[in-house]
Each structure stands twice: as C-alpha cells, then as structure tokens.
C-alpha cells in the first residue's frame, strides 16, 4: 500500500466488536460491526450477532444490551469470520482503542486456525489525541458528544463503527492542510 496516497483515495473499514468481557484470552465476541468507507462515502456495512458458545455475563449485557436470547441460534465466529475477512480485504482498518478489538480479532483467528491479518490499522483514540488535544476523555462516546455527531446506539457494533468512521474523518479533516492528508500522516 502506498503510504503517500491521499486519505481521500484510500478504502478504510471502521470496525468494532462487542464481547462477553474484557479479556481476549478468555472472553468471546458476541457482535461484529464494520463500515467500509472512502472519505464521507459509505461503501458497505457488515453486522452480525454471534453465538459465543457460552453465557453472556450480566455486566457485559448491561453495557451492550446483547442478551443470551439475542445470540441463541446465531452463527458462530467460525461461520462469520471468513465473511468479515473478505469484507476487510484490501482496506486500512480503523478502530477506537484498536488494541482491544485487535486482541479479540487475533483470538478469533487462532480459534479458526487462520493466519494473522496484514491490514494496516489506525487507532482513532490515538489519532484524536493528536487532532483534538486537551480533551477530558478520549472515549468514543465523549468525542462523539464533543464533536456533535448525531446520536447512535452506543455499544452496538455497527453503530460504534459508524461513530468511529465519523471520528476518523473529523480527525483527518482537523489534521489536514488544504484538505489533503496522506495515509502516512494518519498512521504516524
């Protein structure tokens, strides 16, 4: 991938996972959400509830609103992961607090005996610190409020992916000079 190409000419996929807990080594994904975009143009959406093969703890359900009843009979990660990998192919990935989601993605890849991804990854939490210094909180919901994004359903994977896309575009706009910014500049 040419790191000097304009962000406006790059295809990105903002993604988010809802999970049974905080630890990728022991918890599981219960929802995958992603939005493919180039600039302000949405090229596609991907969203699936996933049966984690275990009960969803009450505290995780309170955060996401996803219950055992909602995932009962839904496909497993082994079924959904190949379609997700196809959806993200050839794109730069964007996630808020990317280490969390990448940990769960890599755990799912191991479960499915699939090699690690080769996509470049941008963490909007880190990018927002450069673009909007001095915020009291760099949580996705706080930044969405500060930047006056339209409200959404927080902690649902597709909605959080859309918010992440909006945040990425706002950061790129803030950091650009005369509307141009390279991929290398948002990766740094």
State the gist of this model.
With 188 residues, the protein is of the alpha/beta class. Helices cover 40% and strands 18% of the residues. It has one domain: Ribonuclease H-like superfamily/Ribonuclease H (Nucleotidyltransferase, domain 5, 2-Layer Sandwich), CATH 3.30.420.10.
User: What's the helix-strand series?
Assistant: EEEHHHEHEHHHH
Order of strands across the main sheet: 3-2-1-4-5
- Return the average pLDDT rounded to an integer: 94
Could you tell me the CATH topology label.
Nucleotidyltransferase, domain 5
- Helices and strands: which structural class? alpha/beta
Q: What is the assigned CATH homologous superfamily? A: Ribonuclease H-like superfamily/Ribonuclease H
Distance linking N and C termini = 15 Å
Report the sheet with the most strands, covering strand number, pairing sense and barrel closure.
Answer: 5 strands, mixed
Number of domains: 1
